[in-house]
Target: Trigger factor protein (TF) C-terminus
Amino acid sequence: MKKCLLGILMGLLVLSTTACQQKIPKELSDSYVTVKNYTGIEIEKAEVEKTTDENVDMVVNYMMSNYIESNELPEDTEITDAIVKELSNGEYETVEDYRASLQEQIKETRKKTAKDEEETRVWEKVMNNAEVKKYPDYRLKQIKADLVELYEQYAAQCSMSYDEYMESIKLEDSDLDKAAEASLKQELVADVIADQFDLRPTDEEVEQAAADYAEEYNFTSVELLYKQISKEDIRRMVVQNNVKAWLTEHCSYVESDESDDPEEESNDGSDSADSVSGTDSASEMDSTGKTDSTSGTDSTSETDSTSGMDSASATDSAGSTDSMDKTDSASETGSTSRTEGQTESQGE
Model:
């Protein structure tokens, strides 16, 4: 009897294991795209950069330089508990408390940077394993129109015509076509994976994401954010973020192979999108609101000039630029790129 029960239990276990394996098909496909080998992607684990006292010193020194200048104090003025309490509106009582908080903020930002880097590595390989059957024409035209509008705004800021501006940055209309296709491909791949594994956000999650973006980009309200980017585009961004996180949870980590040449890896169209999305310095903000390290901007300039206590600026000042900016510039829709370019003027 015991042997019989044991046999039944083993049989159920095998069936259960087989059923679980069947939930993740090796290939996904719909009317627009086919994705193969999207799980078990092999990547190297991203290292979390160590946070040092020098990183904290950089933030403190920048904060003090602003404080000294605004209050016309001697250049050798040292930070004190009273200054910390004044600038933080009582949030921190001592210099020690403030430094400890900065160190924790920098650590958390660097953890997120490492996580984002891993998601980027997985996403690039998944994109290389995906093939577009056809592009939905209406959506492709919409993304292209958003890109044109974006560069028309840049041209106006430079007091140039659209054609003059595009010529000055050496971009042609065909470059925008390639960028639109690269962006839409990522959108289509995210959609087919999200539908298969129920990764689409609820309305509440979209609203929360919009609130988070509004705070990151210094919009005074979500309503103002929605004047720059639609709720549907916010939803698309959340879908892609959810898919990237899910894919990374189902990846495999491998040891670093120093013989590999990183230049040989293909981004399957993302280079074209990068050359379009990342050309103008006004657009060089990623989806987290941090300045692109390629812009040449001093990382300490991100610190809040009025208080120096801004948590995002503290981590930026430590040199923790976001590793997602290059990939996101291709993955976000054209209207998302428009928001990134315009947000600076909203936040200034």
Summary: The beta strands are 27-29, 33-36, 42-44, 130-132, 252-254.
